[in-house]
Amino acid sequence: MLVVTLLAFVVVLGLLVFVHEFGHFIVAKSVGIFVEEFSLGLGPLIWKRKTKETQYSLRVLPLGGYCKMAGDNPHDDKITGTTDTDRTTIPQERLFYAKKVRQRSAVVAAGPIMNFLVAALIFTVMFGAFGIPTELSDEAIIGEISPGGPAAQAGLLPGDKILMVNGEVVSAWDELAQKIRSKPNQEITLDVARGLKQFQITVLPRQERPDGPGLIGIVPKIEARERIPFFKAIEFGFLQTFYLIKAILVGLYEIITGKLIGPIAGPVGIAQMTGQAARFGLESLLNLTAVLSVNLGVLNLLPFPALDGGRLVFLGVEGLRRKPIDPEREGLVHFIGFALLMLLVLFITFREVVGLL
Fold first, then answer.
1. Which of these is catalytic: 21, 36, 144, 352?
2. Same domain, 112 and 144
3. Active site residue 226
4. What is the pLDDT of residues 220-234, one digit of tens each?
């Protein structure tokens, strides 16, 4: 189980980081910026290959990656990285900061945009391969489980049939849903049938909004699906991505205003969700990958220092002022923002690890 979780986490995170950094990379190349290194992963070098000017590398920690562009920091005497390329050997017009504001903005925005495009592609493949649900079962049989939700954490699986809730028999999905919704933040005991086995599981319904219903992250079994044409699948894929972006933005607003409550997943939580999705099946894993890709794109576009959105804010100010912002001041702001983000990640990870003990 641990091997499946780690493998799924590495593959999914590696894919999301790759497409994000590839967005920066391909646009940087298209506008003529000298790219010194394109790396998947962080830390010690595992593998590298150098072409005319760019080193492609694979590193030990699959928790990130980067696209190192010449002139990203105008005060560097040399390009930082694994090579010793001297800035004086690179034409001035090929440095990042020498490009026009609109070109640099395109490079910065390309990462999140690639995450959105990949999510739309994944959703398109899902709709094309699996079709869209047209009929749901009335039985109390779990069709899909939300990775990372209370049901997944309790060990429930797709296909499980719920026989009783707190000792009371349930025969239909509506009954099951009503009993769960009426017990927010209260442990409930489910009698479950899985194949020829019957057993009990305790689960804690999560309340996502004050005075909201209890939820454990399950949906009913799909009885029928409709295959859709290829171009319709593309349309649905992009619409699904758009609606998900909108839902994430609304969710962020509700978290800030206190209308939405609930845990925020860090690296440990995402790894758990990825492992659970992998065990639930290919469709569940693809769906989670697309959702995480959209989340990565939205979060990177937030106007916070060190994120792509923060850099776009500085570029916007530069465009309005018609003169560059002091690189030292901008660098300091991004450094502070990055430090705060790392502290937040460490805090969330610490809470997740303590919760596992």
1. 21
2. no
3. no
4. 988 888 888 999 999
